[in-house]
Amino acid sequence: MKSVFAFLDKPLSQEEFEYPLAYALLVHTNSLQILFLLSAVYQPQNQFCIAIDGDAGDRFKEEMLLLSECFPNIFVMVTGNVEWCEHSVLRGVFGCVQYLARLKSEWKYFQVRESIESGPMVAEIP
């Protein structure tokens, strides 16, 4: 995977190293598009949580779960069935927030991607 996608193995700068980020992705399909997104934002000092919609296909779930085997800073979980624009979206995101908050990493900003097709929501959590 690392030979196909541009996953960095060290921070691009000292400033980025000192300013780690946390990402939560709520996903349900299209692993290739998710890999492109991750390869665009991935840096080893950042933390990633991928919450998979419980309705997602088994092959998709397996592909996403492999990410946590390849990268120590990517955590993958399967959440309940998600109905977009419903409370279940928050349940998936909250699961990632709980995981990321327990980490010893001192990330500075948190970004949520509810689906790859939507725009990002950014929130500062001191």
Automatic annotation (TrEMBL):
Keyword Transmembrane: yes
GO terms for MF: acetylglucosaminyltransferase activity
Any single Gene Ontology cellular-component annotation: membrane
Entries under InterPro entries matching the protein: Glyco_trans_14
Metabolic or biological pathway, per its Swiss-Prot or TrEMBL entry: Protein modification; protein glycosylation
Membrane topology recorded in Swiss-Prot or TrEMBL: Single-pass type II membrane protein
Highest taxon listed in the record's lineage: Eukaryota
Localization terms from the record: Membrane
Keywords: Glycoprotein, Glycosyltransferase, Membrane, Signal-anchor, Transferase, Transmembrane, Transmembrane helix
PANTHER family on file: BETA-1,3-GALACTOSYL-O-GLYCOSYL-GLYCOPROTEIN BETA-1,6-N-ACETYLGLUCOSAMINYLTRANSFERASE 3, GLYCOSYLTRANSFERASE 14 FAMILY MEMBER
Protein family: Belongs to the glycosyltransferase 14 family.
Protein name: DNA distortion polypeptide 3
Species of the source: Steinernema glaseri
